[in-house]
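So, could you explain this one?
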Amino acid sequence: MVSCLTDKCIKYLHGLLLETTTLKLSFNFPAVVFCVVVFCIVVFCPPVTEILHGLRLIELKGYEKLAMLKKADLQVNTGLNGLDSVLSWFSKLYESRIPTSVWLRCQLALAEGFTNAVRHAHNGKPADLPVEIQVVVFPEFVEIKIWDWGDPFDLETKIKNISETVDIEAPGGRGLKLMKDIGDNLSYVRTADGRNCLLIVKNYSPCLNDRKEH
């Protein structure tokens, strides 16, 4: 970009000078000054080029962080017997750059989220009512989304009302609190189509060697 701008300035300046001397036209002083200033900045101030290049690298680095490594969607009918198929499907999305302990915690959060959707959100609803799941693996975090058709509620308030003495081994007693402890970001919002979306985001530091944590 910088070199292109410099070339255009030089050509334009040369054209102005040529017209002025050969055709005896009036001298376009502002245009010449502008071209000279731009030329001097580029030629005599290399840091400008370096700054522009640095900004471009920052932009590319940010893009790489948001680039998806894997993305998959799954629909499962309401019923706890679908949990095995959910976990089997999830295991196929594993990336060796993700520490094993982080992946297992993501698996646990997914299991809890799916179980909550079936036991609570879809309680009393038709068995063929689907629970939709989406998992996206990014270079530095894993994103899990679970959609249900239950009644909406305020997630933060619900978690605050959970007793600190809840037996985490008791069925249904750990759900939301456990997902809150696992996820670096946890939300539950109503969508435009009348569903609820549970979002779980888990950050991780990429492994240097496949399947080895650092």
In short: The helical segments are 2-22, 29-44, 46-66, 83-91, 100-121, 155-160, 175-182. The first strand starts at residue 70 and ends at 77. Strands lie at 70-77, 130-137, 141-148, 185-190, 196-203. Residues 20-27, 57-61 have pLDDT under 50 and may be disordered.
